[in-house]
Design a protein that fits this description.
With about 425 residues, the chain is α/β, with parallel strands linked by helices. The chain has 2 domains: about 300 residues, 3-Layer(aba) Sandwich (Rossmann fold); about 100 residues, Nucleotidyltransferase, domain 5 (2-Layer Sandwich), CATH 3.30.420.130. It is about 30% helix and about 20% strand. Strands 1, 2, 5, 6, 7, 8, 9, 10 and 11 form a 9-stranded mixed β-sheet that branches. The longest helix has 17 residues.
C-alpha cells in the first residue's frame, strides 16, 4: 500500500495558524522558531501544537505483548470517560492491524473533510480516527517502514480536526517500536500511559519493558491493567482462574507503579466487540463493567497537565528533597559504556531550584555482575544518565528504585544535569546493549 497523504483534505489558511498565534502563551514550545528549524518545519510544528493545545488530557494505552486485549481496554476506557460526561477522542495508531473501527461498529464509514481538516468518525459522540477508515480494501496489508508510519501518525494528530477534547485515548500496537515511539515524541507531554497485560508470567515480564520504555521517554506510567484474570461464568458470575494469577500486580509492586485493577475473561466482552459496541455501555450493570469503571476512576481525577496523583515511584517526592544523579565518566565526560567506566560523578541537585548542590567523583567498584545497582543505591542515587546499558542492568536498577535514562550524549555532568532539568536532555540509541 502506498502512503496516503491525509493533508490533502484541509486547505491552507484553515485558521490553525491564527489559532496558534492567538494563544498568548509565550512559554509554549511553538511560540518561537527553534535553532536550525526550517520555516516549513516550524509551520508544521505550530499546526500540530494548535491541535494538541485544545486537548486537555492525552493518554496512550500500551502493551509489551500482543494478544492481551489492549484495544479492548482502550475502547472501554474511552467509553467509560465519555459515559462520565467527558469529551473523548480515540486514536488508533496500530498501522498494521487497525481494529478500533470493527470494535465500534464503524467499518466502511467514509470520512469527511471540514474547514479545519479531516473530520474523525463519530461513535455516538466519541471522535474516532484509524488508518482502517482510509484502506480501500479491509483485507489489504499495510507494508510500511518506520518513516511512513511516523508520517501517518503525525497527520492523524496534525491534520485531523479533533476540536476541543477532555481526553484523547491513543491505542498503540504491542511492543516498543515505531508507533508508540512516534506518538510519544510528537505529542511531547503525555499525561501518561496505561499498560495492559495478562496474568501469566510470559506476558507480565514484558510489562517491565513497557515501563522502562515510558521512563526512558519521560512518559508517566499511570498504571497497569491486568486483563483476562480468570474466567467469569456467564450464569453465576463466579471467576475461575485459568492462567497463573497475580503476575501483573507483582510486577507493579516490583517496579513501583500503580495497579489499576484486574478484568476477568468475560464472554460478553467478545460479544460486545463483535457487535461493535463498548462492553462497558452495552453491559453497564454487569460486575465486569463495574471493575472497568473503577479502573477509569483515577484517570477522571487527573488534573490538567499533571499525572502525579497516579505515580507511585520511589522518587515521587523528588521535588521535596535533593536528587542524586549518577553519571559514568570517561575523560571528564559521560562514558558511553556504563559498566566499564573507571569512575562516577554523583551529582546532588535541588530539583525545585533546578540547580546543582554539589558533585562527588567516586572510583568505580570492581566490575562484577549485579554489583553496581546496589552500590549506587547505597550512595543514594535515584537517577542514572548513561550512554548505553543492557536491558538486564536497567531492570536491576529499576528494582533498586533508580530511574535510568540511556542514549545521552558525551557531555560533562554539569551540562547533562542542566539539560535534564531544562527538559532538553536528548536520549538516543542505546549504544551498549549487553
Amino acid at each position: 500500500m502506498k502512503h496516503q497523504d491525509m493533508a490533502a483534505h484541509p486547505a491552507k489558511g484553515d485558521g490553525r495558524q491564527a489559532a496558534c498565534d492567538g494563544c498568548g502563551n509565550k512559554e509554549c514550545s511553538a511560540a518561537e522558531r527553534q535553532k536550525g528549524e526550517s520555516e516549513k518545519d516550524f509551520a508544521e510544528r505550530r499546526e500540530l501544537e494548535s491541535r494538541l493545545c485544545r486537548i486537555l488530557h492525552k493518554i496512550v494505552v500500551l502493551s509489551g505483548k500482543g494478544g492481551v486485549g489492549k484495544s479492548t481496554v482502550a475502547v472501554n476506557i474511552a467509553a467509560a470517560l465519555q459515559m462520565a460526561g467527558k469529551r473523548v477522542g480515540l486514536l488508533d495508531i496500530d498501522i498494521h492491524g487497525p481494529s478500533i473501527p470493527t470494535m465500534l461498529g464503524l467499518e466502511g464509514v467514509p470520512l469527511q473533510s471540514g474547514p479545519g481538516g479531516l473530520l474523525p468518525a463519530d461513535a455516538n459522540g466519541m471522535k474516532v480516527m484509524s488508518l482502517g477508515f482510509l484502506l480501500p480494501d479491509p483485507d489489504q496489508a499495510v507494508i510500511w517502514r518506520g518513516p511512513l508510519k511516523m508520517g501517518a501518525i503525525k497527520q492523524f494528530l496534525k491534520d485531523v480536526d479533533w476540536g476541543d477534547l477532555d481526553y484523547l485515548v491513543i491505542d498503540s500496537p504491542p511492543g516498543t517500536g515505531d508507533e508508540p515511539l512516534s506518538v510519544c515524541q510528537l505529542i511531547g507531554k503525555l499525561d501518561g500511559a496505561v499498560i495492559v497485560t495478562t496474568p501469566q508470567k510470559v506476558a507480565a515480564i514484558d510489562v517491565r519493558k513497557s515501563i522502562t520504555f515510558c521512563r526512558q521517554l519521560g512518559v508517566p506510567v499511570l498504571g497497569v491493567v491486568e486483563n483476562m484474570n480468570g474466567f467469569a461464568c456467564p450464569k453465576c458470575g463466579e471467576v475461575t482462574a485459568i492462567f497463573s494469577r497475580g503476575g501483573g500486580e507483582t510486577i507493579t509492586s516490583d517496579m513501583n507503579v500503580a495497579f489499576l485493577g484486574s478484568i476477568p475473561l468475560d464472554p460478553a466482552i467478545a460479544v460486545a466487540c463483535d457487535a461493535g459496541r463498548p462492553y462497558i455501555s452495552a453491559y453497564a450493570a454487569a460486575p465486569t463493567a463495574g471493575i472497568m469503571r473503577r479502573i477509569v476512576a483515577p484517570l477522571l481525577a487527573l488534573e490538567p497537565g499533571d499525572a502525579s496523583i497516579l505515580k507511585k515511584e520511589k522518587h515521587e517526592n523528588k521535588e521535596k528533597k535533593n536528587m542524586k544523579i549518577a553519571i559514568p565518566l570517561a575523560d571528564g565526560k559521560l562514558a558511553m559504556h556504563f559498566g566499564h567506566c573507571g569512575s562516577f560523578a554523583l551529582v546532588e541537585a535541588d530539583p525545585a531550584e533546578k540547580k546543582i548542590v554539589k558533585r562527588e567523583d567516586l572510583e568505580a567498584p570492581p566490575h562484577e555482575p549485579g554489583l553496581l545497582p546496589k552500590w549506587l543505591a547505597e550512595r543514594g542515587a535515584n537517577l542514572i544518565i548513561a550512554g548505553g546499558m543492557g536491558q538486564r542492568a536497567q531492570d536491576l536498577f529499576l528494582g533498586q528504585g533508580i530511574e535510568v535514562i540511556i542514549g545521552a550524549p558525551a557531555e560533562t555532568p554539569e551540562t547533562l544535569v542542566a539539560s535534564f532539568f531544562a527538559g532538553t536532555l536528548k536520549s538516543g540509541t542505546n549504544v551498549c546493549d549487553h
